[in-house]
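ok so i was messing around last nite and threw this chain in just to see what happens. nothing serious, just curious
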Amino acid sequence: MKISTMKYLLVAAFLTLPVAAGAQEVPAEKVTAIQAMLKTMQCEVDPANIEADGEGFELDDVFCADGQYDMDLKADLTVAEKRKE
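result:
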């Protein structure tokens, strides 16, 4: 393997590290609970847009009866912040 190829691979691995380290798998039962909670608010979100952030969950592109939002949920699934897009 050439040195330039090795440098490229190291840089590529380094650049993807923060993304992989920050993303946490959301357990299926939490996704189901989040979906159920959102349904009571007349909202829905694609499960791929739910991320665990250590203190709760971040939801991107939540579609509600009154518009589209980004939301932050606490660990107990209460809404910490709701931002209209």
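not much to say yet. The chain has two helices and five strands.
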